[in-house]
Design brief:
This protein is mostly beta strands and 119 residues long. The chain contains no helices and eleven strands. The mean pLDDT is 96.
Length: 119
């Protein structure tokens, strides 16, 4: 079964940290670029970070650069998002995404995990 399953969300105080995990199954993990997106009600889903096949190439939205770190473990088919110095505006549902130009399926989405930053 092709799927991405996120975990690690929750409630955290401003300035705190969370680590999101995403477990992949059912497709050739190493052929996919992995990304984290987030969405708040009434707004479009936005790209937070992505990481290339080998893990060497990463990119971040300016709002999270220096605070969030994306990483992947190809041996375990896992992708992570370490989130530090969290702010209330980071509150959102976070989604894991896998995308490939050469393999099928072309794109896979997880179900999302809620992150709430509040005192």
């Amino acid at each position: 079964q092709v799927q991405l399953v996120e975990s690690g969300g929750g409630l955290v105080q401003p300035g705190g940290s969370l680590r999101l995990s995403c477990a992949a199954s059912g497709f050739t993990f190493t052929s996919y670029v992995l990304s984290w997106y987030r969405q708040v009600p009434g707004k479009e889903r936005e790209l937070v970070a992505h990481i290339g096949w080998s893990g060497d190439a990463t990119s971040y939205d300016p709002s999270v650069k220096g605070r969030f770190t994306i990483s992947r473990d190809n041996a375990k088919s896992m992708v992570y998002l370490q989130m530090n110095s969290l702010k209330p505006e980071d509150t959102a549902v976070y989604y894991c995404n896998a995308r490939s130009d050469s393999s099928l399926p072309r794109e896979v989405w997880g179900q999302g995990t809620q992150v709430t930053v509040s005192s």
